[in-house]
Amino acid sequence: MANTVLHTKLGIELNLEREDLGHPGMPGLWERLYERDRMLGSMRVPVSERGMQCAGVCLKAGVVAWMYLREQGGRRQAVHERAEDEARHTAPVSDEHKAYQERIIRTAEGAGFRAGREVRTPLGPRRWIQTDTLVEGDNGLRIGWEVQLSTAAAKGPRSVRARAGRASSHGITPAWHTDREDYASRNDTQWTRSNRLPARVIAKSGGLRVVSGFRVLEFWRCDVTADLPCPDNIGYWGRCGEIHAVPKPRDVMFDDLVRRTAAGLIVPLEYRSGSRTQRFWVPADERERYYEVAGAPELDPKGEEQRAGRGSGNGPTCRPRITISSSRHVLDWRDQSHWAAQPKPCRYCRKPTNLVDDHGIHMHKVCHESALEAAAA
Residue 298 in 3-state DSSP? Predict the structure, then answer.
């Protein structure tokens, strides 16, 4: 049984815990619907054709579960047609899962952000995304935390990849957290993991460490002085002379991760090395520099990131320097002289950046090139 029912023919939800079913402007709604359902039952109309679905646990699980109405012991009830759908409601959310939800909300609200659990984001008249725990951060950021402590599908419409992609395409940054080691090697989203702990430890305000899923980027020039091999193995003696980035694992405290993702200081990254793709979280300024070096991603029609300038699935090659016009002075943005240790506002857009021009003035590569194009127009 369920307390919330979706009436597909009327396009409304029915809350059986309320006398008016949640629709005070429709008096006698229960009586009309109940009598209609009994009449259709007497006519042997299949439950699946009566237009009522479970709008609770089953819908969140991506299952269409048909229901019929009944009165028992003076109580109004919506009953699942199939026993397996009914059983789905008896599987309780673990105490550990609840503790993570409470901690995320407490941490976010303590930092001045809004947060809520089981939040629905409308997509249309009868469609929405339901997020485990949603944090509303700075500048319109929405971080959708999904705590996955049980088995998660790897394929299909309810798979992690599908759900994360759906959230991203509707303005929610997916943040999946687990305590299972096997998820650390999955690349269907940016997973973070903490060690398996009891609920009482998770709920405490003390340190909760994230042991995988967060990294920092180390940038280095690919020349004869470098210790690392060229990942593309091209150029003189296998050296291309370009700047490359290498991810280094780092631990981060869970509360810091919640706060800094909401503030936009830690962001998701899709990192490609040859034919391999890795997904993890990095500091925002390091992702910006990585995009300056390797090319920023673009979104395809499905909302998934595609690498700029890559027309095939082949491994990457060192990107050539971009020349705007032969009559202009072109900055070599990959040169270390154009990287400042401390970020400052860009002279054009005023957003922080570590990039500087020949005179040490902070500016984004894209902003500078746009200004040159505008001046030449």
Answer: strand
pTM: 0.59
Quick: pLDDT tens for 156-208: 656 788 888 888 888 899 999 999 888 877 888 899 999 999 999 998 877 89
Do 36 and 108 sit in the same domain of this protein?
no
User: Which whole-number Å values give the CA distances from 192 to 132, 335, 347, in the listed order?
Assistant: 15, 33, 36
Q: Which amino acid is at 336?
A: Q
Do 58 and 160 lie in one domain? The reply is no
* C-alpha distance from residue 289 to each of 159, 262, 309, 315, 323 (Å): 32, 20, 17, 21, 19
Q: Let me know if 276 is exposed, middle or buried by CB neighbors in 10 A (0-12, 13-18, 19+).
A: exposed
Q: Please say whether the beta carbons of 333 and 218 come within 8 A.
A: no
258 phi, psi to nearest 5 deg:
-60, -45
Alpha helix ranges (H) inside the chain: 29-42, 57-60, 83-88, 95-110, 160-169, 199-203, 254-262, 284-294, 365-376
Specify whether 125 is located in the same domain as 78: no
3-state helix, strand, coil in the chain (%, to 5): 25, 30, 40
The DSSP letter of residue 330 is: P
Burial of 304 (0-12, 13-18, 19+ CB in 10 A): middle
What is the largest distance, in Å, between two alpha-carbon atoms of the chain? Answer: 87
> Could you list the residue range(s) of the whole structural domain that residue 81 is in?
4-88
Domain final residue pick, 174, 195, 210: 210
- Shared-domain flag, residues 99 and 206: yes
Specify whether the CB–CB gap between 14 and 21 falls below 8 A.
Answer: yes
Q: Is the pLDDT of residue 333 over 90?
A: no
Cβ-contact 2, 57 below 8 angstroms: yes
pLDDT at 273: 75
- Percentage of the chain beyond pLDDT 90 is 34
